Amino acid sequence: MPDITPNPSKEWVSFAPSGASPGFMCYYPYLSAREWEGCSGPENRSCWLRRKKAPFGPEHGPYGNGSEHDDEHAPVGVRRYYTYNVVSKTIAPNGVPKQAILFDGQYPGPLLEACWGDELVVTVTNSLPHQGTTIHWHGIRQLYSNDMDGVPVTQCPISRQDSFTYRFRLTQYGASWYHSHYSLQYAEGLAAPMLIHGPSSGNFDVTVKDTLLLSDWVNSKAETAYQDEKDTLIRGASTDSILLNGVGQNTPHGVSRMFSNNDIRTAYPVTAIVPGKRNRLFIINGSVATAFVFSIDAHNFTVIANDFVPVRPYTVSSIVVAIGQRYEIIVEAHDHPSQISGNYWIRTQPADGCNRFNTGFFNTLLDPPSIPFDVRTGILHYDTPPHSNWYSVLPSSSQNEMAIQSYDCADLEIQSSLIPIVPWQVKQPVNDLATSTFYAAHQTDSDKGLGVKGDYAHWLLRLDPVTEHKTNTSWHKPMWVDFSKPTLLHLDNTSDPYANIIHYNYSPSSSKGEDKDLDGYIYMVIDGALLPSTSPNATKNSPSTGGPGNEGFIIPPSAHPMHWHGSDVAIIGQSNSPFDPLRSPQTWNLNNPPRRDTVTMPAGGYLAVAFKPDNPGVWLVHCHIAWHASGGLALQMIIEDGTTGNGGEQIYKVLGRQAIGGLREGCSRWEEDLKRGMLGGDRVAMVEKEDSGV
User: Fold this and answer.
1) Is the pTM of this model over 0.90?
2) DSSP code of 266?
3) What segment(s) does the record annotate as region Disordered (predicted)?
């Protein structure tokens, strides 16, 4: 694959994709410009590349919206280089100064931009004084590049004043974000948007300039807020305010923010759209602990992708965006805006059951509804206003409460309506469902096996005690990683009970040699029924599980936005009711179910997913509420073909000797830095961590 150059060959297919930054171009060097062309236009957005004359196949050629996300179906682009510096800097995105951790000193960090089929080469330098870091590329499948996933189970942290280069191919397209996966660093601001240009399932005229990054914000240090998560009485950390593209204020409900110099742009991010046109924009939730209901006053919009999965166009008036989720939408602008200023409110209201702020909870089910502060976080602006001083006039638009489709953070009705363009017909599982059904649980007592720093009650994913007993398995610990021993480099020793490792083999030899296993699916259930106990001998009705006589230990049922690394997952079942292993599977949808990489498990209900175990490596599954992941609500999947046992030989063969050698060198530098840190008094910050590490 050629590097991108200042003067690319005129023989390459090249074009500027809709919504690209000034001067940005997509290049396809292995496709001759004499025979191929870019074909994405306002009435043909499903097409990306096609032959100019196509006598041997469909007009679109092989590269369009109906392609699978793998090496075979993605075009070959160019190699693009980016460099980022992780630094500590004081910022005040909501008016309260805070020492944050940032990419290149800004929040959100710089937009990472590429094209479908490109290879990214991203060098990250750690300039933090007291911590390591790792950077994860959220939703990127990392097909055959598990070593580039950027999590503490695949690499040692990048040591101080050192760099690590991530290199991976983009077989998907759409919007996402990149963020730290080292303890609670992304809660300190280490997050940024990412846009991969490619085809779309809905036609549009123009693309809005900026992605919309929804987030919450913590005024204190995240590790300080995390103390409330550990506290046996408080049992839950809180955030302070909500931001849109890094701008926000914790203003009272219904009160507009203060702005300076008679310019509303100093208080609110402005999203400009073109009147009378179909305007495409991207929504990303990069929060610590908050799901949002996104809406625009007086406008419906059409969803055309969720996460990196194109879907059949579906028109809504609002959408619930869980942590880690993304949406590609089209806003059909009015020919003549009803607001004289051309300004309308963008609202990002925290969803019921998926928020916790120091000023209170958002809950629309109460009478009156609990809305602690204002949710008008941005302004949609028509780009040709009737007067020139539009920026001095706040929107006067109002929200149609009847148009909001749901404030429930699980939002099952809309989720089930998002039908993928590329269908999956989910087959029967190749694994045992009982040993892949995990309770999202909370310990009743402090965990004495994790030292002084880990001596508190944790979140965790655990097996049913009955299953543990039947299979002679012990699986009831929170996840807790050793930064110096990433699982990917220690596949010959995976017995640590705090590693939370489950093995999935996908070759015919792993299951009676049946051909169906070649394209089989792994089923996994995350059960939200209340089971906080970690006693291996507990049963669902015993006092040690929070039943009668132990009410003081009960934490209310919680929704969990679960994120799968290494694969999209098909949502075959999702319910507000508890999981029933006999009846629930009879209701599951196996015929092209909704598909994405981050899915909410409803509070007290369950989530059932299926995925193809065809990407060898060590992959995390975790709750994307940062406090819960830090508490240990995570597991690791080791996926390999089963022909070489569980020692990782096949994974190492796929990744290559050079990749594994690079990881080992990184760990050596981390160990050297640890020694320097201990001598210099940084042991607490670098070694004695008080969370899971992920």
Assistant:
1) yes
2) G
3) 534-557
